[in-house]
Amino acid sequence: MSDNLIFGAEVFLNGLMAGVLYALVALGFVLIYKASGIFNYAQGVMALFAAATLVGIMKGQVPFSHLINAIFGTEVHYFGWHLPAILGILFTAAVMVALAWLVQKFVFRHLVGQEPIILFMATIGLAYFLEGVSDLMWGSEIKKLDVGLPQGASFWLEENTQWMGFGNENFYGFFIDKLDMFATVIAAILVLSLVIFSQYSKQGRAMRAVADDHQAALSVGINLNFIWVMVWSLAGFVALVAGIMWGTKSGVQFSLSLIALKALPVLMLGGFTSIPGAIVGGLIIGVGEKLFEFAIGPMVGGATENWFAYVLALIFLVFRPQGLFGEKIIERV
Amino acid sequence: MKKKLATMAVAAVMAAGPVMADLVFPSLSYRTGPYAAGGIPFADGYADYFTLLNERDGGIGGVMTKVPECETGYNTEKGVECYEATKGEGALVYQPLSTGITYQLIPKVTADNIPLHTMGYGRTSAANGKVFSHIFNYPANYWNGASVAINHLLDTNGGDINGKKVALVYHNSAYGKEPIRTLEELAKKHGYELSLLPVDHPGQEQKSQWLQIRRDRPDYVIMYGWGVMNQVAIQEAANIRFPMENFIGIWWSGAEHDVTPAGDAANGYKSVTFHNVGSDFPIFDDIQKHVVDKGLAAGAGDQIGTVLYNRGMYAAMLAAEAAKTAQEIHGTADITPAMMRDGMEALEITEAKMTALGMPNFGPSFKVSCENHGGPGLGGITQWNAADKKWSLISDFGPSDMDVILPLITADSESFAAENNIEQRCN
Predict the structure, then answer these.
(1) Closest by Cβ to B33, choosing from A153, A254, A305
(2) What is the per-residue pLDDT for A215?
(3) Fewer CB within a 10 Å sphere, N or C end of chain A?
């Protein structure tokens, strides 16, 4: 088999895996936008905050220790425990629920009925606030995140796919990162759970009702405040999952907040209101940017992925302005 | 009454005497943003060294030092704002720790007659003092770093790397592109095959680049990265089982936080350096006694002895020694930025001087001159030991290939001089 074909297939597979990771970030945006019409600029920072909180809780780090020590002249840094990952994740999820409640109570409750641009601006403020709080709580150094996820090449896959080269000496089996495979499984479970939740649970149906018309939902007795806290909590949990996956790859650090940039073309392509759209959009962007870099990148000096993702999304927008799965905007004059 | 008169007389004399202003060394730091993990230890080391001089020696030449910090967030616009905001305080020298900010400040500092020190970064051809009167990049620059990496490959291959494949993974920015020309020239000379793999900011996703490395199987990978790009690259190299001892980063890709996220898999990774690593130097005892124990350590005080803390401390030491030289040249302790520039141009760092400062073999010996603002371009190699969580210097500070680098410096700087109508000096 020719080099281009076999390596192209490998790039395709890795693009799918990368796309799943992009989709994980995009999901958080979709959840909040779908339920409240807010484009949550702070979603990337929420992933950073969640991952930093997870590391801090697992290591038994005293939150705000630098601040406490600077003010009171103390030397407290750690509680002295080391929690297993599962407990750490549960406690962090609880922190994200608390954050959702605080955000709703102190920010968005006061902005009900405001223009979308005002709500968007509020999320920009929230992003900068959370960035600072995250640094103050847990420090800005790069933290190693180890929740026991497998990482590195799958040797089994490499060995058992060598025959696919059909004698091609340059090919020595497909490379797929075990972490990416794990992320794919997690993302599939997450999406399935979210779809089942929104379609078949009472709260899920209430969430969809609020998304359709929050005043009508209010008139039939749906507690808007509860639904919005629930949606922000779900987005916080999705941010935690994304933070774990990306943080395991690169360590938990400020740059985690920039993964939101990877989610934007996914949202443009998949639609801002569709959970399956986030997944399909992620896969198309992941595969598209990787294949373009593989085929065209060397001819134009490489580093094409960042801009090509947006170009790809824009091309789709020409034909479907609402995105692949977004709700069609019908305005009657 | 006599006592009262005497007191008034002393007060009058003191008031009439010259007022010694502080020697101001602004720190354009970044403790926030995507590159904070690198900015914090450097800023801490820079500040702690001047605190040490104040507490132990009463400043430099009897004049206290001051290090006003301005947060740039590694953002070029903010860096320029910081420069404008602090230059009026009598700033003696700027060290922005950013190539982007450096490029913006080059014309400004030249016009304002304030020296700029860009140690191991910035515009490489600024080493030509004939063109760049106020810019200094001693003791080494990006091109020296690239050559030191290639020299290390030559050393480990018995002096012959003809036919070897070398890949450069670089931050797709002005900084990351700096070594390309040098590596291309060195490829012509030594016969290795060079491939270029740019990584866009911030570098969180590098799957394509490392799949290509896995396909092409280069013998060596050289990296010019910064921030998250370093951690991801080292992790991806481990994922494809690229041998870490064949993976060499420039000095901005060789700190503790670059390797620790990858854990044991980063063991053996190498980095080029122009200063020593670790805290096994007498100066750290002084920092503990005069700075840390008095509660005066910068930041959280938890970076002491790390690679980038040492670099910040080394940068401060070079600035302080240049200030001393300026005081000697001009016969006054209260120096101006212009005098500081003269001090930097006449700076001589010897092993005896570094030993006296409690920093034996901490960096190379070198002498700056009117023509040469870049120093000798010496560099060494450090290697990461994951078990001990320590970097070790595994070579001496060796020379870079100035036969290749000097013509490149001359060509680039002369082109800059022609574009900007700069009359060459030092004749």
Answers:
(1) A254
(2) 86
(3) C
